[in-house]
Design brief:
The protein is α+β, with helices and mostly antiparallel strands. The chain has helices spanning 3-13, 72-79, 96-113, 131-144, 173-187, and strands at 25-27, 64-66, 87-90, 117-121, 149-154, 164-169. Helix 3 runs parallel beside helix 4. It is 35% helix and 14% strand. It starts with a helix and ends with a helix.
């Protein structure tokens, strides 16, 4: 680059600020260019995830959850990694409060984008009192507090095994309507 190019570059990039905490989130699917732009909410939603006392889940207890009404086949398919992953969040070696904030914003962003299948990497310690197991226990508790979470279970070894969770989210109303319209066209 010559001197003029450097000056142009500095002028163009002068007011740019780095992204915060972007190393912890990996988005696997780009948003559709046809999707309408959603205006930023002027007021951010308050983080409702609980803090405080925690019953630590023993390491030998696999994490698994499904809401009432979800078929066992859906959980089995999720457990075997049959659903394509839309996004992942890495919580390794982070303080619990940072994990709480990251998970909350990640789940809100996933909901806004209409994502269905997530991977949350929480880590797995060597004993029940390890930091990774405390984060693991909190993540299991926090995921149950989201209305959109239908199911979660431990991941396959290639995605982190017992140190990660597959999370299945509820379809958005728009996705449900699109699905209904697509299948209605076929039945005619």
């Amino acid at each position: 680059m010559n001197l003029d190019d450097e000056d142009l570059f500095r002028d163009a990039m002068g007011d740019v600020t780095p992204l915060k905490n972007c190393a912890n989130t990996q988005w696997l699917r780009a948003p559709s260019p046809k999707a309408p732009r959603i205006e930023q909410e002027s007021e951010e939603q308050e983080n409702f995830l609980t803090r405080g006392y925690l019953d630590i889940i023993p390491l030998n207890t696999p994490l698994e959850y499904k809401v009432e009404g979800i078929q066992q086949g859906v959980l089995d398919k999720l457990r075997h990694g049959k659903y394509p992953l839309d996004a992942s969040l890495n919580l390794l070696r982070q303080p619990v409060e940072t994990c709480r904030q990251s998970l909350f914003s990640f789940m809100l962003q996933a909901r806004k984008q209409g994502l269905r299948n997530l991977l949350i990497i929480h880590g797995k310690g060597r004993d029940d009192e390890s930091h990774a197991n405390i984060v693991r226990s909190y993540v299991a508790r926090w995921l149950k507090e989201f209305d959109d979470v239908q199911t979660y279970c431990s991941a396959q070894p290639q995605h982190g095994g017992a140190g990660a969770l597959y999370v299945g989210l509820r379809k958005t109303d728009k996705a449900r309507l699109d699905n209904r319209e697509r299948h209605a066209k076929r039945s005619r």
